[in-house]
Amino acid sequence: xxxxxxxxxxxxxxxxxxxRDTLMGPLGWDGVVLGRLPFQATVKPTxxxxxDPKVKIDPLVKNxxxxxxxxxxxxxxxQLGDGLQSQTHTFFVDIYGESLSIAKQLAHDVRGxxxxxxxxxxxxxxxxxxxGHPVLPGHLVEYTDIVTEFPExxxxxxxxxxxxxxxxTFGP
Length: 172
Description:
- This protein is α+β, with helices and mostly antiparallel strands.
- The chain contains 2 helices and 7 strands.
- Strands 1, 2, 3, 4, 5, 6 and 7 form a 7-stranded mixed beta sheet that branches.
- Helix 1 packs across helix 2.
């Protein structure tokens, strides 16, 4: 399987849309499913991809969720044998909740987006460069090393961070 131009960005888009679509869809953080926000939240979450110059968000807006990439993956793609190749991507989801309990619940739900609890731990990679986003044959993304942290600093008591790795494998 040959390298597909933009596949790194497609892995990022898949992770971002998985968070956005799962939280705002079946988990009801948009208020539509239940007719109200879950867990007595009073503000619908705002989800942004950090670094997007078109989107400006005050970092202390209640229930703000910032999605960002870690270091760019190495240009040298790992060979796994039998023509399989692999590349890892690290992502961070920063959450500032209106209260600690809302921050914790959002963090647990974000974590669940990348496990079999709310989403899927292995997902076929869509080709975001094509209309309708068909699946790229032979490209899979597996989410691993999902860690949730709650900073203990008093000025960060409503913060949570979810860090995870996306392992993108592709081959014949």
